[in-house]
Amino acid sequence: MKVIITADHAGVVLRSEVKALLEEKGIPYEDAGVEGTCSVDYPDYSLSAAKRIAAGEFDRGIFICGTGIGMSIAANKVKGIRCALVHDVYSAEMTRLHNDSNVIALGERVIGPGLAREIVETWLDTSFEGGRHNRRVEKITTYEEEQ
Question: Per-residue confidence at 108, pLDDT binned at 50, 70, 90?
Fold first, then answer.
């Protein structure tokens, strides 16, 4: 698995924690986020990283901003991206099991570093369940392709 991680100015601290977890787990990643805390526009970072996932350069993405909301809205505009805004471990597990999410969005102003690590670890370690859920994900894919 290869991961791209990105963050705007409001997600740089949490991004460091997540990068440390990826390194501990030996998961290759690229950091495509902003350097520093000067204000930037989150769509620039979210859309750029999401396009690279959709193009097959990466298997998954971890996007971080103040709330995770902006990053998730922008990422979900890219065909082939299923970005879940997650602030708890249960949702992280379920979005992989049932939705086959390929991007997770986190909010640095919403969750702390310890919880973020638990969320990301659960999300990375959980596989898509398939079955009836595959049919549902395929409906989303079909809709995207019709647009």
Answer: very high
Residue 90 pLDDT grade (very low, low, confident, very high; cuts 50, 70, 90)? very high
Q: Strand pairing partners for 85?
A: 105
What is the CATH architecture of 3-146? 3-Layer(aba) Sandwich (3.40)
The answer to pTM > 0.90 is: yes
Catalytically annotated residues: 65, 98
Q: Classify each residue of 88-119 as buried b or exposed e, where b means 16 or more C-beta atoms within 10 Å of its C-beta.
A: eeebbbbbbebbbbbbbbbbbeebeeeebbeb
pLDDT at 103: 98
Do residues 33 and 19 touch, judged by C-beta distance below 8 A? no
What are the structural domain ranges in the chain?
3-146
Q: Which amino acid is at 22?
A: L
Residue where the block lists tokens 């990301």: 120
